[in-house]
Design goal:
This protein is an all-alpha fold. The chain is 81% helix and 0% strand. Helix 1 runs parallel beside helix 5 and helix 5 crosses helix 6.
Length: 197
């Protein structure tokens, strides 16, 4: 009689233990995102996105220099509303609960404890402090490499287009009977190049 009630008690306590573990991980996840200053990083990203959006809208409307005051007011109002929409869906307040859930699901207590210990250490604090600079400089390096790469890629595309164009007459000749082609293997599969325009 005592055994079934003991088992029932244990089964009822299991969800409470799991919930307590999840709550513990969520508290640690909250501490982690606070230490990493994710709210500040997200705000910087949103500010950059807002500047890009505003610039793109001005170019799209082609009204940078020719806009009347009324057109400029409409554009400014539209930009403000568009960014408010993006902020409401993509801002930190919207993302934070899901990010916390993600950390709590992904890492166990021991892993979170280890990461928190690192980020509270002098090396971790230094990494957090210097990471925005590193990220910015890494982006500049990538952009510089990409700028240098673009002319080479354009040349490769032009060379490919020329080679493809030059191959077009050769593919037209592949329709001739194979007996007309000297030294060709009649059993070998013939390759055709299809050019779409």
């Amino acid at each position: 009689m005592k055994r079934p009630s003991l088992l029932l008690c244990l089964l009822l306590c299991l969800p409470l233990t799991a919930h307590a573990d999840e709550a513990s991980r969520r508290v640690k996840a909250q501490e982690m995102v606070t230490l990493l200053h994710m709210d500040t990083l997200m705000q910087q990203m949103m500010d950059t996105m807002q500047k890009q959006m505003s610039s793109n809208l001005r170019q799209l409307c082609a009204c940078d220099k020719t806009a009347t005051p009324q057109q400029q007011a409409l554009l400014d109002d539209f930009t403000k509303k568009a960014f408010a929409l993006v902020e409401s869906r993509m801002g930190w307040k919207s993302l934070e609960p899901e990010i916390l859930d993600l950390y709590a699901r992904t890492f166990n207590d021991e892993e979170l404890d280890g990461m928190l210990a690192f980020y509270k250490s002098p090396a971790g604090v230094s990494m957090i402090t210097k990471m925005p600079t590193i990220t910015t400089q890494a982006a500049q390096i990538s952009q510089s490499k990409m700028s240098a790469l673009i002319p080479e890629m354009q040349k490769m595309i032009q060379d490919f287009a020329k080679a493809e164009s030059d191959a077009a007459p050769a593919s037209a000749n592949s329709g001739k009977s194979q007996s007309d082609q000297s030294g060709s293997d009649q059993n070998a599969p013939q390759k055709q190049i299809i050019i779409t325009q």
